[in-house]
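User: structure tokens for this one?
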Amino acid sequence: MKSFKMSVFVLCMAAISTGVHAGKLESSVRNFWSAVDMGDFDKAAQYLSSDIQVFMPLSPTPLNLEAYKGVGMAFRTGFPDIQHKIAECTEGTMTLAVRGLFLGTNTGSLMGNPPTGNRVELPFLQYWTFDAAGKAIRIEIAFDLTAFNAQLMKGVSNKDLANTLMAELNKHNLNGVIKNCASDAKFYGWEPQAVDAEGYRKAMMEILDAFPDAKFLILDVIAEGDKVVVRHQLEGTHTGAAFKGVSATNRKIVVPATVIFQFRNGKATDLWLNADALGMMIQLGAFPVSK
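Assistant:
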């Protein structure tokens, strides 16, 4: 009988201990999101291990603590009224599954993109793993990125997006251009073969370094379906670095060009450039032309 009573006592104590610890895990997650929504990222970081890894649809690779804080700050800026409403928590051994709802209105700049003014309400699922100290060491976040982009970009036309890309280019802000492109975007016409975003950056930097006053004057913008055609011309003075082996000439150039953008979910996925590269080199004096 004593053995039986002792067994019951041990089981009850184990259940109480598990319940108390599980309550702490849920409380930590709720306090974490409350701090995030208030913009207090230093407080939020107290619930995370310094070795945290965060997996989410916005990044192809896991985020470390600093990167995740950066994403959180960007979303707080983009959605000043941001809320993470926790609907349900299910606890395991040092783990917590969370079902909730993201709410916010995009009235601020989001990762370099101008605000759309749109309201986003999106369900999410999370799976948290904690270390022995009760700090989160791994967070897996799942939500419908396509639905997020659709709500965020509602009412924003592909023509508007193309004009935004060209505006960033005219500011020589290549990061701004790339942020408006899908992570796997392909760029055709900048090199003999299609290049990715870094290949595009390298090709454009060669132009901007050689022509510090470069401007891309828009002449026509035509949109149909998921494609936008922008007829424009590059204007600039060759006062900077050498271009294609030609040292600075101080010559002014005007280069007609056309770029076609294809968009999906508010991002450019494919870009095709057709520019008068030969005419550009002739204007720089690289090829003699008989009169």
